[in-house]
Amino acid sequence: MSAPATRRPVLTEGPIARTLLMFALPILGSTVLQSLNASVNAMWIGHYLGESALSAISNANLILFLLLSAVFGISMACTILIGQSLGARNIAEAKRVVGTSASFFIVVSVVIALLSYIGTPWLLQRLGTPVDSLPYAVPYLRVIFIALPSMYFYSFLMMSLRGAGDSRTPFLFMGISVLLDIGLNPLLMFGIGPFPRMGIAGSAMATLIAQSLTLFALLGTLYARKHFLRLTGAELRYLKLDPQILRTLIFKGLPMGLQMIVISSSAMLMMRLVNNYGSQTTAAYGAANQLWNYVLMPAMAIGAAVSSMAAQNVGAQLWDRVNRIARIGVLYSLLLSGGLIALICIFNRSALNLFLPGDGDAMQLARHLNIIAVWSYMFLGVTFVLFGVVRATGAVWPPLIILFVTTWLIRPPFALTMIPAWGSDAIWWSFPLSAMISMLLAVAYYRWGGWRDARMLSAPIGAAK
Predict the structure, then answer these.
(1) CA nearest neighbour of 393 among 311, 287, 312
(2) Which residue, 332, 319, 313, 451, is CA-closest to 381?
(3) How many CB atoms lie within 10 A of CB 234?
């Protein structure tokens, strides 16, 4: 159940370790559900449609991640602005942010979905998708692009609620969405009962239906429960774009979105290198990526929780709590990510067997590359948590620069330089190398950088308008 309208979640009070954990767990649960959904879909596709189809969704998901990253920064800027506003006890400011952000997301999502649908073959060709995977990837992506507006707006609502200190409501509705998606997936793929047989496009159609239904259910629930951030009556004027808030969303959100684009575009380049070794290596890499997603979940959840929690404390000017939030967040990330990495190394073959047949060449490749690269996600965990803290003040450019240096100026050049000597192993070793350097730079910026002096809005968050 979400917090009643008369009781606003407060992240500026109480014991930090417990508050952070209780706030992060639903975020982690949401992330687990998302990856579980993707993994179940990959299991159906990999086992029943073959390695070429699994390779297709590996390539398609990279493109989808890139497009979601395009608005990730705007969502994060919205989360931080709402958190700072509520920390400063300025509800009207938070509603202005919600209104401007909602209008912006509606327009941008429709434009991106239309352009992406038209350009689907071009996008896949630029990625170097294997020829035998293209017949699967094109229909899958085109249905996903139809679902993109629902995905964008649903993501915006979840991030807004988290900025307001509520991570349980997004978790509840994520669970509903995933159950719908998982349940509809085989029905639409294989034409069970009254459902049409759509093949791999059926997997994407299940996502479209689940996301759309859940989005409308979430909106209806927020208004039925009279959530304190809902817009009613005269407040609907906040849907008109506020120039100051829009500038902040764009100029602060753009670098945060670029962080994800830098990561995803680098991943696309690495995927292109992997694709050069054929569909079996691509399938092995895709299966390992499914496991890596789970390893990264705790760091992503802690990083998101830390950012929302730090934003409210920044708005309230409680800097000692901000520092303690960072330390506890890093500890949680190391413990959770490290535990998962250890389990994956112990049960390496069994875990990969969920996505790949146990007797194929792809399985042997996946086991090998997994042991080399999975450890990099412990380093990335620390980086994401520290970035979550510093961006809560509005310091958004240094994290972007750090990620660009490590994912573009270190990872691909290292792989390309060493491929003649090491073959595909050069690709796998580039991951832990770049992740370790990223962590060291993030720690250095947190310790000695000027992030505490950064601002989101030019005017004080608590200033009356």
Answers:
(1) 311
(2) 332
(3) 7
Band of pLDDT at residue 459, cut at 50, 70 and 90 = low
Do 163 and 79 form a contact (C-beta atoms < 8 A)?
Answer: yes
* Kind and range of the H or E run holding 421: helix 411-422
Start-to-end CA distance of the chain, whole Å, equals: 33
Q: Which helix (H) or strand (E) holds 391?
A: none
Instruction: Express each pLDDT in 125-157 by its tens digit.
Output: 877 777 777 777 888 888 888 988 998 899 899
How many Cβ atoms from other residues are within 10 Å of residue 289's Cβ? 21
Q: Check residue 53 and give its pLDDT.
A: 76
- Within 208-351, strands assigned E span none
Identify the burial level of 163 via C-beta atoms within 10 angstroms of its C-beta, where 0-12 means exposed, 13-18 middle and 19 or more buried. Answer: buried
What does the DSSP 8-state code read for residue 460?
Answer: -
Sign of CA dihedral 164, 168, 173, 175: positive
Q: Which contiguous run of DSSP H or E holds residue 81? A: helix 51-87
Smallest CA-to-CA distance from 167 within 36, 296, 22, 294 is with 22
User: 346-354 — which CB contacts under 8 Å span 24+ positions?
Assistant: 351/291, 352/287, 352/288, 352/291, 354/39, 354/43, 354/290
Q: Tell me, letter by letter, the H, E, C secondary structure of 188-240.
A: HHHCCCCCCCCCHHHHHHHHHHHHHHHHHHHHHHHHHCCCCCCCCHHHHHHHC
Distance, in Å, from the CA atom of 43 to the CA atom of 290, rounded to the nearest integer, reads: 10
How far is the C-alpha of 272 from the C-alpha of 416, rounded, in Å?
Answer: 12
Structure tokens at 356: 């790949």
CA distance 390 to 141: 35
CA distance 83 to 97: 11
Q: Is the dihedral of CA 88, 92, 98, 101 positive or negative?
A: negative
- 120: tokens are 């689907």
Domain boundaries, the chain: 16-452
Decide if 283 contacts 54 (C-beta within 8 A): yes
Reported as a pLDDT band with limits 50, 70 and 90, residue 281 is: confident
